[in-house]
Design brief:
Elements lengths: L1 E5 L6 H12 L2 E4 H11 L2 H12 L5 H14 L3 E4 L5 H14 L5 E6 L2 H9 L1 E3 L6 E3 L26 H24 L3 E5 L4 H17 L1
Parallel strand pairs: 1-3, 1-4, 2-3, 4-7
Antiparallel strand pairs: 5-6
This protein binds BIS(adenosine)-5'-pentaphosphate.
BIS(adenosine)-5'-pentaphosphate binds next to helix 1, helix 2, helix 3, strand 6 and helix 8.
């Protein structure tokens, strides 16, 4: 199965993509995680991307396209989470998947309102060591702000400040909603109500993908 995951910042794309990847045995590719890993390792890509991400803007299409193409060449089934985010990226992806004969089966849109997103993101904490994502309201760590898996002190992402989240939301509306329309025209969009709790979103998603997998 080859899937795209769309939704505004903080909609729950990463949370759900990890569950789907485990259940359906497919690889989860998050372009945000790839960039954050480059930032934490201090690579050239990371140095260039850090300031852009901290402002809530987008890294260039050229860089993102070549990062993703490299991954697609290696994998047969995958979830792309956070890509494509612009029409140019979507057109590039179309071309690349045709060339590689790995066309996309469906695009999942996790739909959530701006106010819910701001609330969720202000309570998100992440483990800087193993990457596990928590929420101080809906997915609390067992011990005060420490990772359940590795015990590392949890942190807040630099781009999770309210003003940056609102900017990321604006960027999403302007650049990514047209991409969703592009996939809607090709009948590839599956819309899920992301305002439900995590378990209900997962249940709905698994049911749709299971029936889809049988077709
Ligand atoms: P990226 O990391 O992709 O950020 P994003 O799309 O803004 O998404 P998030 O990671 O913030 O949220 P999510 O939807 O995964 O939510 P999560 O599951 O964590 O990109 C970051 C930056 O990188 C971009 O701004 C850009 O600069 C750059 N970039 C990346 N890709 C790019 C590209 N293709 N082109 C150009 N630039 C690119 O959940 C959020 C919180 O809510 C968590 O605390 C979670 O526990 C909680 N939660 C999840 N689901 C629920 C629920 N149903 N109910 C209650 N709480 C929930």
């Amino acid at each position: 199965m080859r899937l795209l995951f769309f939704g505004p910042p903080g909609a729950g794309k990463g949370t759900q993509a990890k569950k789907v990847a485990q259940e359906f045995q497919i690889v989860h590719i998050s372009t945000g995680d790839i960039l954050r890993d480059a930032v934490s390792k201090g690579t050239e890509l990371g140095k260039m991307a850090k300031a852009i991400m901290d402002r809530g803007e987008l890294v260039s299409d050229e860089i993102m396209n070549s990062l993703v193409k490299e991954k697609l060449e290696e994998l047969d089934s995958f979830i792309l989470d956070g890509y494509p985010r612009t029409l140019d990226q979507a057109k590039f992806l179309d071309q690349a998947t045709k060339e590689l004969q790995k066309e996309i089966d469906a695009a999942v849109l996790i739909d959530v309102s701006e106010e819910e997103i701001v609330k969720r993101i202000s309570n998100r904490r992440v483990c800087p060591n193993c990457g596990k994502v928590y929420n101080l309201i809906t997915l609390q760590p067992k011990e005060d702000e420490k990772c359940d898996v590795c015990g590392t002190k949890l942190i807040q992402r630099d781009d999770d400040k309210e003003e940056v989240v609102r900017e990321r939301y604006k960027v999403y509306k302007k650049n990514t909603e047209p991409v969703i329309e592009y996939y809607r025209k090709n009948n590839k969009i599956i819309t899920i109500d992301g305002a439900q709790n995590v378990e209900d979103v997962t249940k709905e998603l698994f049911n749709i993908l299971r029936s889809f997998n049988k077709q």
